[in-house]
Structure formats: C-alpha cells, structure tokens
Amino acid sequence: MRLHGSFLRFLRLVVFLVLVFAVITLCMMLFQQSNGTSPFRLNDVTSDLAIQTVTVTITAANAASTSGIFNKQFRLENCENPYLQPGYIWYSNTTEEIETSWIPFYSGILDFPVASLFDRQGNSVDPVMNGEPYYPKTPPPDELQNTAPHKWMQDIVRYNELTQNRESAMSIDEKELLTLENRLEWLRDLRILIVSDSVDRYQSEYVCNRVGEQMHPGPEGHQTTSSCRIPKLNLTFTNWHVASMSTTRPDWWWLKNMKVIPFERRWQEYYMPNVQDTIGKNGHSPDLILFQTGLWDYTFFSYAPQTANGKVDFHRSLNWTELRFYMQRVRFVLQTLRKQFGYDMPILCRAVTYKKDLLANAAVHDLDRASRFVCSELGLETMEYGSLNDGYFNFYKDLVHIDRGPTSVLWANMFFWYLFRSRGGIENRGKIIQDAARGSMNASMAWQRCHDVFMGQQYASKY
Fold first, then answer.
1. Under DSSP, is residue 93 helix (H, G, I), strand (E, B) or coil?
2. End-to-end alpha-carbon separation of the chain, Å?
3. Overall CATH class of domain 80-99+147-462
4. Stretch(es) of the chain classified as CATH 3.40.50.1110
C-alpha cells in the first residue's frame, strides 16, 4: 500500500508538471502572437522564411549613421525580390513608356477572374464557338498592378518636372511636390559606378536624358569613361567602360581607334585618375557598383580564330579554354573592385543581354552562365535585366543596344530597386515597408539582411 501511495503521488507530480509546462507554452505562444511573431501565423509567404526573424545589432558607431533606419527585429518574410519572380513586362504603348512596369506573378493569380473577351465590335464572344476572338490590350487588374515594384523612374521624372515648373513661377501642386521630395530624398548625393559596356552606359544615359541631362565622355571618349548627373537630386552615374576580358590588344582588333584593351591598363590609365568622383556618402566607395561584361568578350572570341583560319564565326559556342579564361578574368576584375573599395561594398552583377541576331547567341548564353557562376561564387547577386529583356528585340536600336523605350524604363526601375535596398529601404509586393536612409549609413548591413535569401531565390528562378 505504501508503494502504491508513492506511485500515485509520483503520478500526480508528473501530471502537475505537464500541466505547468502546457500553460507556460500557451502563454508564450499568445505573447508571440500579440507581437506578430507567432510561428503559426499564416501569411502570403508560404516558405519557412516567413517564420524566421533576424535581430539586427546596431553599434554605437553605426547608430548615428543609420538614423534609426533599422528595426530591432527584421522579418525575413519581407525578403522577396519581385524581379526574381515569374512575371511579364507590361507597357501601355511606346508613347507612355514611363509607365512600364514589371508585373510579378505571385500565388493566387490563377484565382483572378478571367477577363471578358470581346469581338471587334465590342460584343462578348465565346472563343471556342466563334473562331477568332479579339483579345483587347487592357492593363492588368489593380490587384495585380498594386503588387508590382515601385516605379522610381516615373517619380524622378515627375519630381524634376514639378521643380522646374516651380522655378519658372508656374502653378504647381505643392503637396504632390512635397510628397515626391520626401519619397526621393534618399537618392540625394548618391554616386553610382557602372563597370560595364555601352549597353549599361546607354541605359544610365537614358535615365539622365529623361530629366533633360546628357552623358559626358571622359578625356579619352565614351569607350573609356563617362558620367551624367541629375542636378535636382545631385545623383551621379559614372561609367567605366570594359572592353572585354582580353589581356592583350591583338593586331586584328576590330576597332582601330581603341588603343587600350586590358582591364589592368584601363584601371591605371582611365579609371584611377578620376576615382575620387565615384566616392559616395561613406567616404571611401561608390554607393553601389553595377558590373557586367559579355558582348565585347563574345566579339573578341568570335574574331580570335581568324588568326588561324581567316574566318570570323559569330554562331559557334565557346570552347572550354575560352570559357575558363573568361571566368578567371571576371573573378580578377571583381576582386580588384573589392580590393579598391572594400569587401563590404555591395556589388551587383548584371545578366548579359543578348544580340538581336537569334542565330548568334550561343556564346552569349555561355558567357552569361559563366558570369553568373563567378558572381555567385564570390557571393554577389545578379540583376536579371538581360534575361527579362530577352526577346524584346523590337526595342533594340541596333544589333546589341537596347534603345530608349519601355525596356530601358525597366532597367531604371530595376536598378533603383536594388539601390533603394542598399540604402536600407524595404519594399514588399508593391508596398514600401521601410523608407531608405537619407544620410550616411552602413550599406553593407542593409544589403546583407536579405542577401542570403535572394541568392537562394536567384538560383531557384534561373535554374
């Protein structure tokens, strides 16, 4: 009986402890839920990222520079890159190109009501019964457009227009101007460095052209260095032209007036003499670097075999030796940029754009994949402009350059999305969750918050 009584007391103790544990667990869950961090909370993001949190530590040294831009807790569910989502480029027509937008596809889009179909007289038709229905070019529904990334280029153009009108003593909507001024203040005094070819030079030039500014070549011409500036924001784009990854200038080089080819020589003779012009708010590096090289390498490798057989072959793919050489050189260039500007400096790679000649892109695909791999190995993200632009050849100005038009607006909005993020801004499904910093700040800390997530999304979207 004594043993039986001891067992009952032990059993009661176990039950009591289980009940206490259950009560404590329930209280913790309710507390978490009240603070918006419940691990069981459902939301639009269905991956495990939705239940993770990251604690951002702000040191005393960084506190002033960040100006409170970082929340103590940052939820990884906000780490969604709209340009890595499936989607499509929407534009109304070429005369309203500034409204161009990337429309990402998110879960739930298949449940949207099917748009009505009309014949050419405006009557509803059954597409199965009546043969050839007319599908009107209507914009995506508001529910979808509202999830699109912010149209920064449109804001900049409108802000410039309003400030010019006010300077000309014209009547303007002062409230609209103040709203835009506050929204764009984070761009003020930024310095952007583009280490690429004429494709990106033209795209940055179009940004400046849309507010009435021009690209100015360096002392040795556009194919060395160039820059343009948006005065109303004191926002400057500097271009360092890359003429392939070649380490020599062969006698057969196709541009006779281009005397310096190797990146090392260009670095010393063209880039470094004016490097101070690229320094941004942190005092030692640009505010963001965009890197890309591909089409010059494509041309270089196409011409190279002519020394052996006299034939230029634009349609072949690259051989292993060429590809390996290219990857080693791309790594060298990126490491050189890091050594110069700091290993915490955000560098954004850009997907290679394709030639208008559909039969001549095998090597371009080789170069794009190789460049992506090198950037990934170095922990760098890739801006998907080349892949999103693929096929929109009606917006090219020649065989390789994208003209000013809808897809150039896409370039601008994409780039400003990344720049906004590098300044601590957070945008999720079309909503500004957190404004970007206006003053000096730790760009590396802002960039790293979503970096690992975006690297994973990038591979999932491309491969």
1. coil
2. 71
3. alpha beta
4. 80-99+147-462
Cα dihedral angle (413, 414, 419, 422), rounded to 10 degrees? Answer: 140
* Identity of the residue numbered 149: P
| Residues 292, 419: Cα–Cα separation, whole Å | 16
Which one-letter amino acid corresponds to residue 382? Answer: T
Other Cβ atoms less than 10 A from the Cβ of 23: the count is 10
Longest pairwise C-alpha distance within the chain: 107
Contacts for 153 with CB less than 8 Å, ≥ 6 apart: 98, 207, 210, 409, 412, 413, 416
d(CA 313, CA 302) in angstroms, rounded, equals 5
CA pair distance 241, 264, nearest whole angstrom:
13
User: What does each of the 463 residues of the chain score in pLDDT, given as a tens digit?
Assistant: 454 567 677 777 777 777 777 777 666 655 444 443 332 222 333 333 333 333 333 333 333 344 444 454 567 788 999 999 999 999 987 567 899 999 999 988 887 766 666 666 667 666 554 556 566 677 888 888 999 999 999 999 999 999 999 999 888 999 999 999 999 999 999 999 999 999 999 999 999 999 999 999 998 899 999 999 999 999 999 999 999 999 999 888 888 889 999 999 999 999 999 999 999 998 999 999 999 999 999 999 988 876 566 678 888 999 999 999 999 999 999 999 999 999 988 999 999 999 998 788 999 999 999 999 999 999 999 999 999 999 999 999 999 999 999 999 999 999 999 999 999 999 999 999 989 987 767 788 889 889 999 998 886 555 4
How many whole angstroms separate alpha carbon 112 and alpha carbon 109?
Answer: 5
CA distance 176 to 277: 33
Q: Taking the CA of residue 20 as centre, how many other CA atoms within 13 Å lie in the half-sphere pointing to its CB?
A: 6
**∠ CA 199-200-204 to the nearest 5 degrees?**
125
Helix (H) or strand (E) holding 189: none
Q: How crowded is the C-beta side of 395, counted as CA atoms within 13 Å?
A: 24
Q: Cα dist. 463→376, 414, 434, 460 in Å? A: 13, 21, 31, 6
Q: Show Cβ contacts of residue 428 under 8 Å, excluding neighbours closer than 6 positions.
A: 77, 78, 80
Give the alpha-carbon dihedral of 312, 318, 319, 322, to 10 degrees.
90
User: pTM score, two decimals?
Assistant: 0.82
> Cα 417 to the chain's mean position, in Å?
6
- H or E element, residue 290: strand 288-291
Q: Of 436, 288, 357, 387, whose CA–CA distance to 88 is shortest?
A: 387
Which pair of structure tokens corresponds to residue 261? 């080819």
